Structures are given as C-alpha cells and as structure tokens.
Amino acid sequence: MGIATVNPATSEVIKTFESLTDAEIEIRLQKGQEAFEQYRKTSFEQRSRWMNEAAKVLEEGKEAFGKLMTLEMGKTLKSAIAEVEKCAWVCRFYAENASRFLADVPSQTDASRSFVRYQPLGVVLAVMPWNFPFWQVFRFAAPALMAGNGGLLKHASNVPQCALAIEDIFLQAGFPPGVFQTLLIGADKVAPLMADDRIKAATLTGSEPAGASLAAAAGKQIKKVVLELGGSDPFIVMPSADLDAAIATAVTARMLNNGQSCIAAKRFIVHTDIASEFEHRLVENYQALKVGDPMLPETDIGPLATPGILKDLEDQVKRAVEQGARVLIGGQPASQQGNFYPPTILAEIPVESAIAREEFFGPVAMLFQVANIDTAIQIANSVPFGLGASAWTHNPVEQERFINDLEAGAVFINGLVKSDPRLPFGGIKRSGFGRELGIQGIHEFVNIKTVWMK
Length: 454
What we know:
By secondary structure, the protein is of the alpha/beta class. It has 14 helices and 20 strands. The chain has two domains: 4-229 and 431-453, Aldehyde Dehydrogenase, Chain A, domain 1; 233-420, Aldehyde Dehydrogenase, Chain A, domain 2. Helix content is 41%, strand content 20%. Helix 2 packs across helix 6 (160-173), helix 3 packs antiparallel against helix 6 and helix 4 runs parallel beside helix 5 (135-146).
C-alpha cells in the first residue's frame, strides 16, 4: 500500500492519500523558497514567539495528537502523549536558547575586527521515520526554524496524518505559510528533490539503506546531510551495579515504543557473577508485561507498525535459533489480529554469528554473558553500529573505561539512553553522522561565516 493510515492493531485501512504530482511538488518548492527569503530576515525574538506558540499548540492538543500517533503506528497512547510533551519541550528549549547559540563569536586576529557569524542555509529537506512520528520531526524543525531555515518534510508513508498535523501546528503557531511544509510523496521523489537548487541540505532518520541512498543523492549535489540511522545498543551490567535499577531500566530500555527505537537497548551484556540472577529477573519482568490494545492505559506493549516489520522480526528470531540461540521467553508471533509480537529474550547466541551483528527492531532482547570488562567492551563494539551505549557499574575505573572505549555517539553510565534537547544526539560508524539537539544540532544547518574587517 502507498501513503495510508492503517491501524496496526486491527489491520484496518483508515484513510488513503494520493502522492503529490510533480507540478504540485514544484508549487511547494517555489512557495518554500519564497517564504525562506522573507523568513530569514525575521528576528530571533519573533521566531521565539512563534516557536513558543507551537509548544502551546502541542500541549493543548496532546491527547488528540497522541491518539493520532497510536492509530497510525501503534505506540501506546500514554507514550504517544509523552512524546508530544517532549516536542513542546524542544520547541521551548530552542525558543529560549537559539539567539545565544547563534550569536556572533569574536576572535582576536590581525584584523581590527574579526568574528564568526551563523546564517541560515535555506530550505532543508527532512526525511523522517514512523517510529517517533512527532519527536523526530520536531527535534529537527525547532532548531532549523529558529536558525532561520525553511523545512520540507517527507514523512514515512504510514504516518501521513501525523505529517499533515505537524505542518498545521506550525501554521497555527503563526509561522508564515511555506516556511514548513509537508510533502506527501514516495521515496522515489527524494533524489530529484536533492537535485533541485532550492533544497540546500537534508536530514534523515531511518534505516541504513535509506540513509545511504540519501547520502549518495546529496553527495552528487555537494549538499550537507545529517544522518541518524540504526543501532544495536549494548546494555552492560557489571557486578558493582545496582541490580534492581539495572533490571528495571533494562525492561524500559528494550520495550520502549514497542521495541521499535534506534536507541533501545538490544544487546544485554552481563558479567557472569550476576548473569543468572539478571536473566531470571529479566524473564519475570518480561512475563509481567501486558500486550494488547495500545489505546488502553494498562497496555505495556502495542503492535509493531507494519506487517513487514512483524515478518522481518519473526524471520530474525528463527535465524537466531538456527544459529544457536536459546529462547527464554516469547519467540513466536501472537495469534491475535494485528501486528503483535510478544516480549522475547534470546540467550546463548554465538558472538561470532551473523545474527548477533544485526539490529532487531521490535521487543526482542539478546543476552550475552562475559567474564570481564575487556570481553564486555569487545562484544559491545563488535557490531557495525555506534549509536548509544549504557553501562552499569559503580566502579570508577570501569566507568572511565566504558566512557573512553565504547564506540558510540552517547554513553550513559547507570542510566537509560535517551535524547535530550540540552545534549547533542547522533551516532558513529554505520549509525550515521552529524548531530541533532544541543548547540551542536543548531549549528548543522547554518553557514558558519568568517568575517574579517580592517
């Protein structure tokens, strides 16, 4: 199916949409360029007022926006509402801090005056995924718009109503028409858009193949791109860890968003001294999770977003078992209607097996035992991804080892890996490049201009 809302809990087709024609895309491109030429002249004070108003629109409509997300991609309603609240936070963060982040930076040189000035690039194309259909967009849009750029959103084809709602939020907030627009188009239109001179840069959050495709298209045009791609984050637990806190967080870290998160903990690497207890208690906690209707407040795990994701996950688990894994819990798709897969734990996976290097995008955890910190770090770094990592230890020497030696864009010690507007977010290796959020995020899509005056 093309661009459509399909309830993943029931497989019911709710609404379908026609892709924009080339002529309609051209109209939006021209509108976006004309809007940018005027919008870039607005003050930070004016942009801040609009961005704060966007936060207000989000908060006032959080229940409706949350239900829309749940309907289109299946996350629990309580987590969807929390996502909207986080979007309001990132709007307010950049409304408050953008002028400081982008202020002129003086430098002492042989000039009578020299400084760095940050200026907007232009219209930026955002290719966004379905798993956090509001947050992924707003964490790009808030800094990009506050910097004076325009935005064009090509959202995932299974969340079209979320995409349209986001455009409307910015219009309701007072941003000039054309500054942020949604394009209901297929992936085949991305490369032609990158070839258009009015598109100055692009950002993508999504799969590795999608990122490689966009990077290739941008590379042909010598255009800036930021990529946040897949991850297979390690969650390392050492003997000195607070086991109660580690286990509680291990459940949240894997099951967040029905297990469909790039920064979910996917590989649990546990020291042999505590491995037996950790495994037993993790299984108990997984057994207690309620799978069902994501609209109900008591539901912990909703459906996967699409039938294709369900099939891919089922195939991965089968291959893992064939390669030596032992299923501790779950391991088979649920029998009810919809894209449901139960919480699953795979143990005794051979470290050298091909499946151990893959990303599982659903509620499936891989469990490994290690005898020492060297082996823990070796296994953690053995995959092609490098997005986030969580390590649990109260030993200062071990903490420093993990901080220095784990190959990841973010290392969390004794805590859940999460994105935060105050800190940069992104990965290394095949998890992508560039950063979102923090001061680093707003600097991605600006011209860092050197000014020298005699």
